[in-house]
Write a structure and sequence with these properties.
- There is one protein chain.
- Helix content is 44%, strand content 19%.
- The chain is an alpha+beta fold and 341 residues long.
- It starts with 15 loop residues before the first helix and ends with a helix.
- The strands form four sheets. It has a four-stranded antiparallel β-sheet.
Length: 341
């Protein structure tokens, strides 16, 4: 038996082993072999993902925190998409309503974001998402060339909107991956416009609000009210904004269907059923929540005080889960009793 010995040293004198190591290092360039502890701590402060996921992100990006954040976002979208596909048929009958009004008080937006349970609806990540979507909904109004009392936004249009380099749809998908529930953007609406600075004042209200981060909030019921008047000063606008805010509370609490009695009469003449009595379903005929007579009487008093006509141009009210069939959830206590019997 002859032993054959093959030399690994080429004629040029360079070591093949060294060349191989260089090749391996080149192939692995950009991948750390050890996690930087400071980078790990900072990354989890910026994005509180599980420790193992944060380590994977840093190892994949050579401990570059900025690149690791991008890696985590892409990973969250991918995992969220897989999760969303699995649970897309679950009923998102819970959720939250978010309202946003621009700084000029001339435009507002309201959205409903659905989820499966109240537990997730109260999660700050979910609340932040709802608030962000509502804020992004204001953009169509900000670019409008004319004022509009109320405009319904197509969900598909809003889902395609880009916010901080991501679409709203991607943000929803990412949140599904994080929270593990089906999340659905159900509806959205805006009213007002910056072009209506001389005539429109908008304000909103959310009932049962849950706080998120950076001042965000969302709740069970929300409303927007637009008041039309000849605004002559900032003080005048503030007065009307306060009134619009209180009227939004009225809308949320008493759920009117019409603004004026004339609208109610037209619906009655058209044979529309279930419109109720004017003092119940007409906003201007309702007693003002904060006293002072009916809403119509309060508007007249304010108009006299500001020496300008004041009228409600439009209102909208969203309540979470409206029109969604709620799934029958098993009674856990009853199940336990059956098993013990």
């Amino acid at each position: 038996m002859l032993a054959v010995v093959v030399s690994l040293r080429p004629a040029c004198g360079a070591s093949l082993c060294s060349a191989a190591c260089v090749g391996i290092r080149t192939a692995l360039r950009g991948y750390a072999t050890k996690v930087d502890i400071k980078a790990l701590k900072r990354l989890r402060e910026l994005n509180p993902v599980p420790m193992s996921k944060a380590k994977e992100a840093l190892l994949s990006t050579d401990n570059d925190i900025d690149q690791a954040m991008v890696w985590l976002e892409k990973d969250a979208i991918q995992s969220g998409a897989r999760k969303a596909e699995k649970i897309k048929n679950r009923a998102a009958s819970d959720g939250a309503i978010a309202v946003q009004v621009n700084s000029a008080l001339t435009a507002g937006a309201i959205i409903e974001l659905g989820c499966e349970t109240d537990f997730v609806a109260r999660n700050s990540t979910f609340v932040d998402l709802a608030s962000t979507i509502a804020r992004s909904s204001l953009e169509p109004a900000n670019h409008s060339t004319h004022h509009s009392a109320l405009t319904q936004i197509e969900v598909s249009e809003l889902s395609a909107k880009v916010v901080s380099d991501r679409t709203v749809a991607d943000m929803v998908t990412e949140t599904i991956g994080r929270l593990g529930e089906n999340i659905v953007l159900r509806r959205a609406a805006t009213m007002g416009s910056p072009d209506a600075t001389d005539s429109m004042v908008v304000s909103g209200y959310v009932h049962g609000g849950i706080a998120g981060s950076h001042g965000a909030s969302a709740g069970k019921i929300g409303g927007l009210v637009a008041i039309k008047s000849s605004v002559r000063s900032d003080e005048h606008r503030r007065t009307l904004s306060q009134l619009a805010g209180r009227l939004a509370q009225q809308v949320v609490g008493y759920s009117p269907r019409f603004i004026t009695v004339d609208e109610w009469k037209a619906a009655s003449a058209a044979g529309i059923e279930g419109i109720g009595e004017p003092e119940v379903t007409v906003l201007e005929a309702q007693q003002f929540l904060f006293g002072g007579g009916t809403i119509a009487e309060v508007l007249a008093k304010v108009a006299k005080g500001v020496d300008a006509p004041v009228e409600v141009a439009s209102f909208v009210r969203f309540e979470r889960g409206e029109g969604v069939e709620k799934p029958v959830r098993p009674d856990f206590a009853e199940e336990v009793r059956k098993q013990l019997s």
